[in-house]
Specification:
The protein is α+β, with helices and mostly antiparallel strands. It has helices spanning 14-22, 45-55, 61-87, 96-110, 119-138, 140-154, 162-167, 170-181, 213-217, 220-223, 262-279, and strands at 8-10, 27-28, 91-95, 188-192, 196-198, 201-203, 208-211, 280-284, 292-294, 298-300, 305-310. It binds protoporphyrin IX containing FE (HEM). Residues 29, 40-41, 52, 113, 117-118, 120-121, 124-125, 128, 184-185, 188, 251-253, 257, 259-261, 264-265 line the site of protoporphyrin IX containing FE.
């Protein structure tokens, strides 16, 4: 047994990461600290399995479909607020990070996912939507392509339904590339409680295994020479064909402890982005400072001031 601070090993090879995810009983999460909200995220063993079984049905597709109208209502509230700000002069400077944070909070509260263990869902979805808007501000060509897709399918006023949302291709590619480029959960950590083997490595009781998602997502050996560029095209043939090695795209983790809110988050993100593109074009404000910072999720330290224009 190690004493003091756990020795930490960084693992970035997808084949190792897949094994760690699969052996979730050997590679467990850290035991909850005093201030950790007591929820599914930090539970372990039988206790985790029991709670996950209980809450799994709440996240099935049929239930998510029923939540769509509530998500739409919350998005409309944000869009109306932005429209009021833009109304007088046709444009306005808005810190979209705080607006999107309020939106994600509303959605979780209104869809009754608001218990303490789902707090993680708020910060991560906010992070995804904020970086998507920042990246589309920096890559106006992709912003135009996404808006063309949305307007050609739904015009300016139709609210997309569940199958509409799933049929979007450009928007979907942009969401995936945003999750690759700025993974909201930028690294994952596990503790081992018994000497164990990980392929050819021998790991000792008490060691911490760290999986820096962001490094895996930017690895040129896995993603090609343009790994450090924003290029949604890499997802044009789906996630499986976007990389050379399976398991290189892990924004939601993997194995039995994969994010339970994945589909919930993706629906919310695609719906919100669609509505935003229907109503506004946007660019970075000169006051935007690029400073990604890891709190509960990766967020822009000084917010995301963008200039919004009416479409
Ligand atoms: C873009 C949005 C999101 C991202 C990137 C994300 C990412 C993740 C990741 C990486 C994990 C696994 C952590 C680990 O293995 O250590 C996780 C777990 C989890 N997520 Fe998410 N998440 C998102 C949205 C949500 C939402 C919307 C909810 C709830 C409504 C949610 C609830 C949870 C819960 C409860 C767990 C723990 C699951 C378990 O341990 O069995 N997440 N999430």
């Amino acid at each position: 047994m190690w004493y003091g601070r756990s020795p930490r090993l960084n693992i970035t090879k997808p084949e190792f990461i897949r094994e760690i995810f699969a052996k979730y009983e050997v590679f467990t999460k850290r035991p909850p600290g005093k201030k950790t909200p007591f929820g599914l995220v930090m539970r372990e063993g039988e206790d985790w399995a029991k709670v996950r079984r209980i809450i799994n049905p709440a996240y099935d597709m049929e239930k998510l479909k029923n939540m769509l109208p509530t998500m739409e209502k919350c998005c409309d509230k944000m869009i109306r607020k932005w429209e009021e700000m833009v109304a007088t002069t046709g444009s306005a400077k808005v810190d979209v990070y705080s607006s999107l944070n309020a939106l994600s909070g509303d959605v979780i509260a209104e869809t009754s996912f608001g218990s303490s263990y789902e707090e993680a869902g708020k910060d991560t979805t906010t992070s995804l939507l904020t970086w998507a808007m920042v990246l589309l501000s920096e890559h106006q060509d992709w912003q135009s392509k996404a808006r063309e897709e949305v307007l050609s399918r739904f015009g300016k006023d139709k609210t997309p339904d569940y199958s509409d949302i799933n049929s979007l291709t450009i928007v979907n590619m942009i969401i995936n590339e945003t999750l690759r480029f700025y993974p909201p959960v930028s690294s994952l950590s596990r503790i081992i409680h018994t000497n164990t083997k990980l392929k050819q490595l021998t790991l000792l009781n008490g060691m911490e295994v760290n999986m820096p998602t962001i490094m895996v997502h930017r690895d040129q050996e896995l993603w090609g020479d343009d790994a450090n560029e924003f290029n949604p095209n890499r997802f044009s043939e789906g996630v499986v064909n976007a990389t050379k090695v399976p398991g290189s795209f892990i924004p939601f983790g993997g194995g039995p402890r994969i994010c339970i809110g994945k589909n919930f988050a993706l629906i919310e993100a695609k719906l919100a982005l669609t509505k935003i593109l229907q109503h506004f074009s946007f660019e970075l404000s000169p006051s935007y400072v690029h400073a990604p910072m890891c709190l509960a999720a990766m967020v822009p330290q000084f917010g995301a001031p963008l200039i919004l224009y009416q479409v």
